[in-house]
């Protein structure tokens, strides 16, 4: 009888220890009945004093690889050299050596072409000829230049700085000021915050951006209090929850210069307010 | 065609060896002119007729023995498919391919040693910064989720629920040069020489 009893006992014990270890959780609940009761309480209680906003952090990921730093260049050369030294001769290199030997034999005075074993009357295509042919073929292909002709300082173009990941910023009126922010919009009842973020992206005027959202969970948040004269009854301030998205369609739509900006991580400080920047920098990874 | 069918039919009904079957078998032979003189047919005259009971038994025994032999042969485990990556080709052991090892000067070997050590330091700091950045992002997410939980349980549950659309996630990574707009790749053909093994 002891075995079934311990089986029932153990899960409850585990729940108690895990919930007590999470110091931050405000509503600590032990059994299912208490938890559902708690839910009813929060639904019926006074609405929280924070207005909810959903914001989206759209990243245009790098299109082109980054340039190598000096130590990386030196190391790459060293690795190539070492690999070459430790390798065996390839078929092509053997052919080159054979051709060179044959050429040197031809130069000698007592050269007899009948002594050649393999090639008597056939046309010889030397390995060097093959190499030249391959070089010619390579030159026929023109790749696109690494820095597309766009001015690197023109912040409104999404084609700038192809080697870095860029983030979209929008200029918005908040209260009396015009601020640069990540696109955000107020949360409405009946939708999840991720849907709010998607709406924020879709409602940008003039921009037809398609992005893949990475998961349902927000990646960061920022809360600020309204100035005293604007504080309505019950709302102390706003909480903005950021969601990460990756730009999927790469259309070169020219966006308005003064309201949109594609910005690298180290340029963010020129655009965002210090407190806002501090929170946003945490989840933007530009390695 | 009809004759073949008749002969097969006669073999099938051989257990019930009766005059009728022998008649059918014998009918088409040239030894006979009339149907009446059955019992004096050559094959019937040459051998004494075998007993009917032992025949089917013997055939059954033969069949069983053959089946057992087949099973023993089939029990051999199938040959393992060789992994071509693990087999060093004979070309690697060819002595004509050995490259002469260059003699490095003292300065060169020193330079190499220093560069390798610098590289390991550089890589370590790079890895450390990457780990720190990831930890920072995770911490920011955790705090955001805690704040959301303080706001409303519903939204928190929706945020924590798994997203089924995000995987499989596909993205074309960075190349050395950006893609050319409206590029038509030339059509080429290739001969597939991969070896396919069947067990």
From TrEMBL, chain A:
Domain of life per record: Eukaryota
Gene Ontology MF, one: structural constituent of ribosome
Main location as per UniProt: mitochondrion
Name recorded for this polypeptide: Large ribosomal subunit protein mL46
InterPro entries, per database record: NUDIX_hydrolase-like_dom_sf, Ribosomal_mL46, Ribosomal_mL46_N, Ribosomal_mL46_NUDIX
Organism of this sequence: Culter alburnus (Topmouth culter)
Domain Large ribosomal subunit protein mL46 N-terminal: 50-144
Gene Ontology, cellular component aspect: mitochondrial inner membrane; mitochondrial large ribosomal subunit
Pfam families: MRP-L46 (PF11788)
Family as reported in the entry's similarity comment: Belongs to the mitochondrion-specific ribosomal protein mL46 family.
TrEMBL record, chain B:
Main subcellular location of this protein, as a coarse class: mitochondrion
Pfam families registered for this protein in UniProt: MRP-L28
Any coiled-coil regions, as ranges: 131-158
Keywords of this entry: Coiled coil, Mitochondrion, Ribonucleoprotein, Ribosomal protein, Transit peptide
GO cellular component: mitochondrial large ribosomal subunit
InterPro entries: Ribosomal_mL40, Ribosomal_mL40_metazoa/plant
Localisation: Mitochondrion
Family membership noted in the UniProt record: Belongs to the mitochondrion-specific ribosomal protein mL40 family.
This protein's name: Large ribosomal subunit protein mL40
